[in-house]
């Protein structure tokens, strides 16, 4: 019973850790994507004004 409880606890901790890791990676990726889109848009805007 104790062994099963330990296995369950470890499995839950692993699951939570993986979900957190994925969520953080997604958040970082979205922030990067938004930043890149903003940078490209501003550069295109500058080019548009220059032309």
Account of the protein in words:
This protein is mainly α. It has a domain at 25-51. 96% of the residues lie in helices and 0% in strands. It contains 1 helix and no strands. It has one helix at 2-50. The longest helix is centred in the middle third of the chain and has 49 residues, at 2-50. The radius of gyration is 22 Å and the shape is rod-shaped. The mean pLDDT is 95. The chain crosses the membrane at residues 6-39. Keywords: Membrane, Transmembrane, Transmembrane helix.
Order of SSEs: H
Largest sheet: none
Secondary structure: number of strands: 0
Percent of residues in beta strands? under 5%
Shape: rod-shaped
End-to-end Cα distance: 74 Å
Helix content range: over 70%
Overall structural class, as computed from helix and strand content, comes to: mainly alpha
| Overall pLDDT | 95
Radius of gyration: 22 Å
The number of distinct helices, counting runs of at least 4 residues, comes to 1
Could you name the ranges where pLDDT drops below 50 across 5 or more consecutive residues? none
